[in-house]
Amino acid sequence: MRRHAMLAILAVVAVLQAGAAPEGHLEDAASRPAEKTSSLPEILLIGDSIRIGYCKAVAEALNGKAEVKWPAGNCQNSQNILISLVRWRGLVASPKVVQFNCGHWDAACWDGDADALTTVDEYARNVRKIIHRIRRYWPEAKIVFATTTPMNPNGRLGRNARTTESIRRYNAAAVAIAQSEGIAVNDLFAITEKWPESEYVDYCHFNKEAAKRLGGFVAARLASEAGL
Of 43, 92, 125, 208, which residue is the least packed, with the fewest Cβ within 10 Å? Predict the structure, then answer.
């Protein structure tokens, strides 16, 4: 009986050791640098649901000129981008351009909270850290910060409330950091600021046609940054 019990215990330990990484260990297949498989330059798009709306349009516009890649899901807020970049290393080998965007989640008063998820000062610090981390992972990449787009002009706040005026403050803080770090700014806020309510499907997201049009602007700008 004792022998059988000991064998069972050893079997459990072996399974746990095989399936679990040490605490704090982030290296896995996804976080190791990717190997380049194409002669086309790589472009990496990082961002929230606004990026999700236009990323395929960017890829279509640059088809045959660049490989445009992005994380599968919503990159959410600046904190999430900061801690997730290590996993996204597996998406690209040596990107020509990395564009990142965050702000809608950061500026939001989440689920009815009185305060924003991230203060403006915290947001600015995170943006700087993101820039530094991108430089560490892809030192040859041109970094582009994309500003956060405005809210629907109809004034509806949605469950996770923020306003166009609050977004202006977050954008101003991030642009100041981007300029101090010498990186380019793709001002998507300025492009979409005058877009009417008809371009939106809710309090902040664009309809398919508007998102595709925004993707055209992004593609043109990133093609220029990449020298395509």
Answer: 208
At residue 135's C-alpha, the angle toward residues 100 and 167, to 5°, is 30
136 occurs within a structural domain = yes
Q: Which domain holds residue 66?
A: 39-226
Element (H, E) at 78: helix 78-88
Predicted model pTM: 0.83
How far is the C-alpha of 203 from the C-alpha of 227, rounded, in Å? 36
Q: What's the CATH code of the domain at 160? A: 3.40.50.1110
Integer Cα distance of 105 and 116 in angstroms: 9
Is residue 190 domain-resident? yes
Model confidence over 137-147: pLDDT tens digits? 999 999 999 99
d(CA 131, CA 105): 18
